[in-house]
Write a structure and sequence with these properties.
Helix 1 runs antiparallel to helix 13. This protein has one domain: Na+/H+ antiporter like fold (Up-down Bundle). The radius of gyration is 18 Å and the shape is globular. The chain starts with a helix and ends with a helix. With 296 residues, it is an all-alpha fold.
């Protein structure tokens, strides 16, 4: 059942992206992306808490690699095609660990707690660093830009985190809600992908002068970032956590950086992490398909 499960989820995501591309009118509801991200993060934070005991030196190495990949992809994008391609690469590389990464590792019989630690560390830290980093790569290193990004990221990440921990403190049984609502969380993710694709499609249709070469370059830098992330994660994980570290660095919370790209760059730049959704889910499907054979 696991291969079918993995392929069906990838099919759902690809269908959402395709439908969104065909229905650009849905871009009028793109404001919902922010709230969908916050809802998914709320569910994740309900069952997790960042503690020193859950972290190791490998986690810190993954965090450093996560930030470095953002700047490396940004540089590669400049070489490949200029500012938009560079920003698309940056938003691919800098994206922290995905909400669903611990779920995939669970299906692969890996150590879920390691990936949960990576998720919390990378998401919280990168969210805190974004107000400093974004104005620099966008070329708008001003106090106003810093305050704007800080407020936006604070609302999207830290508000659901604080709310989730408060709810769990008052009602401890709320920690079990995410496992019961796993399909709901995935559904929110698919809906957000639909709106992201619709918004990108509307922008491309309204700006027909965008060269096909630029789109190909963005897809290319996104694929390069995906391959580098999974490969570097496996190296960092070493013999103890190869699969877990690879998944933590390679499977990314693209909804978060797509939101940032739409808010502070453009829908064309947001195509970078949008393409990344396709690449990392194709790899996840292959892993889920291959896992039973490896087990035997």
């Amino acid at each position: 059942m696991r291969p079918v499960f993995g392929l069906s989820r990838t099919a759902a995501i690809l269908s959402a992206l395709t439908l969104g591309a065909l229905v650009p009118q849905a871009s009028a509801l793109a404001w919902m992306i922010r709230w969908l991200v916050m809802a998914m993060l709320f569910l994740v934070f309900l069952q997790t808490r960042l503690t020193r005991a859950a972290l190791s030196g490998t986690h810190l190495a993954l965090l450093a690699a996560n930030v470095a990949l953002g700047f490396a992809a940004w540089g590669a994008g400049w070489l490949m095609g200029g500012r938009d391609v560079a920003l698309a690469g940056f938003f691919c590389g800098i994206t922290p660990t995905a909400i669903a990464a611990p779920v995939i590792i669970g299906f692969l019989k890996g150590r879920v707690e390691f990936v949960v630690g990576a998720f919390l560390l990378t998401n919280v830290t990168i969210a805190a660093l974004m107000p400093l980093i974004l104005p620099l790569v966008l070329g708008r290193a001003t106090p106003e830009a810093f305050a704007q990004v800080l407020g936006s990221v604070g609302i999207v990440v830290f508000l659901p985190m604080a709310l989730a921990w408060a709810v769990r403190a008052v009602h401890p049984a709320a920690g079990h809600w995410p496992s019961r609502l796993r399909n709901v969380s995935f559904g929110l993710w698919v809906i957000s992908m639909f709106f992201i694709a619709a918004n990108a499609s509307a922008f491309i249709r309204a700006n027909t002068g965008i060269p096909r070469l630029v789109l190909a370059e963005i897809a290319g830098v996104s694929l390069l970032s995906c391959v580098a992330s999974f490969a570097l994660g496996r190296v960092i994980g070493g013999r103890e956590f190869p699969r877990e570290a690879s998944q933590a660095l390679g499977q990314k919370n693209t909804t978060f950086t797509i939101y940032l790209a739409l808010a502070y760059a453009s829908p064309v730049v947001a195509l970078g992490p949008t393409f990344y959704v396709v690449w990392h889910n194709l790899w996840n499907s292959w892993q889920l398909h291959r896992h039973p054979k490896e087990t035997r």
